[in-house]
Design brief:
GO terms for molecular function: FAD binding; oxidoreductase activity. InterPro entries: BBE, FAD-bd_PCMH, FAD-bd_PCMH-like_sf, FAD-bd_PCMH_sub2, FAD-linked_Oxidoreductases_BP, Oxid_FAD_bind_N. Keywords: Oxidoreductase, Signal. This protein is an alpha+beta fold. The protein folds into 4 domains: 175 residues, no CATH class; 123 residues, Uridine Diphospho-n-acetylenolpyruvylglucosamine Reductase, domain 3 (2-Layer Sandwich), CATH 3.30.465; 216 residues, Vanillyl-alcohol Oxidase, Chain A, domain 3 (3-Layer(aba) Sandwich); 55 residues, no CATH class. The chain is 35% helix and 17% strand. It has 22 helices and 18 strands. Strand 8 and strand 9 form a beta hairpin. The longest helix has 20 residues. The chain is globular, with a radius of gyration of 23 Å. Bound molecules: flavin-adenine dinucleotide and 2-acetamido-2-deoxy-beta-D-glucopyranose (4 copies). The site of flavin-adenine dinucleotide has 36 residues, from strand 3, helix 9 and strand 10.
Length: 586
């Protein structure tokens, strides 16, 4: 069912380069030699649900059946998934969407054994063929050398939360950073090579996730700004793409709080990156995106003193009519709330919204959130205020029990809503209508609007983040056995339903980590004026294009085998032509 090494046929498909470079070496020799270099640590990428398929084939195996039961029970468990190499939180990235090859259970009914019984077979899909569990810079160097020699593409995988599938890829070698779990508090942290004053900082291994960081922060009386999920990693795609959380309106994004990265760049150098050395990379890693400039092994962030957090929870009967009215009312007070440091989430499917504020006393919080009280009153709902001792308590009470759905295929579209657009009724109305026509939607009040102490020229996130208040998203789920046509229709619906929102926010942007994989004019949408400088930095550090991912800086376009599982979408905007131009420059 699973061939051990790529067949000679796939060797031919790799093109002439491999054959020219080492005419006598087969692909399986290459893998074996890599394994030897690594002291036997090369591992096979096994699809997450494989034990279920094996249990159906060998019903007598108690082991497979026990493993399958755990997979069925924990299919939507964020942390369980992030700890399995062959799992992706958005499960279309375990599959080959373009061909339908997959190894998936039925997320709507995990007990449905027809999903994993013959004639269905467990197919590798986009799960990387092999992986290396990264322990040290030499592991990364070995992978770079392997990819340069063989042209077998390389991907970096951390927790597997990427919405673009950038941590997956058919026929690839993966570097898995998930087990780099350092977590160290330093009360006298000075970025290496700087002479600035010491600050309290948390140094976090590339694989360490929010759950552990929140617990560690509470235990050590510090506050860490991270996002709304237990299992996203802080030092991987999250921070490199921006990194928002409920504290961001008051305290900034991940990119505003990171002080230093340690990274292995594609030339094999292990570099320290901060405001005093490798400054160009410091700019690129603060918004340019993961998987692009090198492999980060750890990063250090500001750890603020522990703060008391005021919270307001609003609850209402979420009929469509009520939700439209509520959001219109909330829009009226949104800019002032963000300026006062409130961050939070409006989630129609939970019939609720919740905000946190680390700056105000309870009395001031009640005054500041008057518009929230009024908005919920207007739809017959109610609001309750809470005072939490730590942000981790806020996370445990309001976020962890209601995390976003995972363990299923999900596609989304989003938009940053600038502060000067909150009186544009057409915009607000088309936004909320688009959201409610989708399967899951949310307004994330997480832009760093109230945080003015940021490095003006130091980050490469879209500047619209600084002037925006809401990051709104809508999304669709698919059944495990949906057809390619069904899925293409969902991508098409995302585009259709979001057109007015895009047109009414012409100079705004999109969060590159939570976006439509077919976002029109994505370079402008993700990075605005910073794209060209990011491309220069990409050329400097990765001239041979060892790292490459879907619509990352320096993307070569769709015509590469590693993207063969992405469905092809006809667009009038022909981004492929544009991308081919960039490729020539590289
Ligand atoms: C359920 C859910 C909740 C989310 N909540 C939030 C939120 O609250 N706030 C927010 O800002 N975002 C959120 N996100 C989006 C999240 O930030 C992105 O999915 C992010 O890319 C995840 O990074 P990762 O490293 O954990 O995941 P991965 O999928 O493993 O990696 C993501 C990207 O980063 C690259 N990468 C990973 N590790 C490294 C490394 N060490 N060095 C170099 N490149 C690396 C990968 O190659 C890939 O391109 C959420 C996503 C999901 C699915
Ligand atoms: C790598 O080598 C080790 C030890 O020789 C072996 O156990 C392992 O199966 C090999 N890995 C792969 C992917 O073949
Ligand atoms: C069952 O599977 C687990 C995980 O693969 C393995 O570690 C264990 O040795 C297996 N047990 C038996 C009895 O085969
Ligand atoms: C955190 O603060 C509490 C209360 O002030 C104190 O008892 C505890 O020792 C502190 N913990 C650490 C690790 O500093
Ligand atoms: C919500 O509103 C609908 C329509 O008015 C009504 O039928 C339903 O009973 C309400 N639900 C609750 C929980 O109040």
């Amino acid at each position: 069912m699973f061939d051990s090494f790529p067949s000679p046929w796939s060797l031919l498909k790799l093109g002439t380069q491999l054959l020219l470079v080492s005419p006598l070496r087969s692909v399986s020799d290459e893998w074996a030699s890599l394994n030897k270099t690594l002291g036997g640590r090369l591992q096979r990428g096994i699809p997450f649900a494989q034990p279920c398929f094996l249990s159906a084939l060998t019903p007598s195996s108690a082991n497979y059946s026990a493993q399958c039961t755990e997979i069925q029970e924990r299919n939507e468990d964020h942390l369980f998934r992030s700890e399995s190499f062959g799992s992706y939180e958005l499960t279309q990235w375990e599959t080959c969407e373009a061909t339908g090859e997959q190894c998936s259970i039925d997320w709507q009914n995990p007990q449905n054994s027809a999903a994993f019984s013959p004639p269905r077979e467990c197919k590798q899909g986009s799960v990387p063929s092999y992986y290396i569990e990264v322990k040290e810079p030499n592991d990364v160097r070995a992978a770079y050398a392997f990819t340069q020699r063989t042209k077998i593409p390389l991907v970096i995988k951390n927790t597997g939360h990427d919405y673009f599938g950038r941590s997956a890829g058919p026929g690839t070698l993966a570097l898995w950073t998930r087990n780099l779990d350092k977590l160290v508090l330093d009360k006298n942290f000075v970025p290496e090579g700087c002479s600035s004053d010491a600050t309290t900082a948390l140094t976090i291994g590339a694989g360490q996730h929010f759950r552990a960081i929140y617990d560690f922060s509470r235990a050590n009386n510090v506050t860490f700004v991270a996002g709304a999920d237990p299992s996203v990693g802080a030092s991987g795609g999250w921070v490199m793409g921006g990194g928002h959380g409920a504290l961001s309106p008051a305290f900034g994004l991940g990119v505003d709080r990171v002080l230093q990265f340690k990274i292995v760049t594609p030339d094999g150098q292990y570099r320290t990156v901060n405001k005093c050395q490798n400054e160009d990379l410091f700019f690129a890693l603060r918004g340019g995106g993961g998987g692009t400039f090198g492999v980060v092994l750890e990063s250090s962030f500001i750890a603020s003193p522990q703060v008391t957090v005021q919270a307001v929870l609003g609850m209402y009967n979420s009929t469509r009519e009520n939700t439209v009215k509520l959001v219109k009312e909330l829009a009226k007070g949104a800019v002032q709330l963000a300026a006062d440091g409130w961050g939070g989430y409006i989630t129609p499917s939970l019939s609720s919204a919740v905000w946190a504020n680390p700056l105000l006393s309870l009395a001031d919080a009640e005054k500041s959130a008057a518009s929230v009280i009024a908005a919920f009153k207007a739809v017959g709902g109610e609001t309750v205020f809470y005072t939490m001792e730590t942000f981790t308590d806020f996370f445990d009470t309001f976020i962890a029990p209601n995390t976003d759905p995972v363990g299923r295929p999900q596609v989304l579209a989003s938009r940053l809503i600038p502060s000067d657009k909150f009186e544009d009724d057409v915009l607000i109305e088309s936004m909320i209508n688009g959201m409610l026509d989708s399967d899951f939607s949310q307004i994330l009040a997480v832009a760093p609007y109230g945080f003015k102490d940021y490095d003006k020229y130091g980050t490469s996130i879209h500047p619209a983040w600084r002037t925006s208040v809401w990051h709104s998203l809508m999304s669709y789920f698919s059944n495990f056995d949906s057809t390619l046509d069904d899925r293409m229709e969902q991508y098409a619906k995302l585009t259709r339903l979001w057109t007015t929102v895009r047109e009414h926010t012409p100079n705004s942007g999109v969060y590159m980590n939570e976006a439509d994989i077919y976002e029109p004019d994505y370079k402008t949408a993700f990075w605005g004026p910073h794209h060209d400088r990011l491309l220069e930095i990409k050329k400097k550090y990765d001239p041979h294009h060892i790292l490459d991912c879907w619509r990352c800086v320096g993307w070569k376009g769709v015509n590469d085998d590693r993207y063969k599982c992405y469905p092809r979408k006809d667009t009038t905007a022909t981004p492929e032509v544009e991308d081919a131009k960039d490729y020539k420059e590289l």
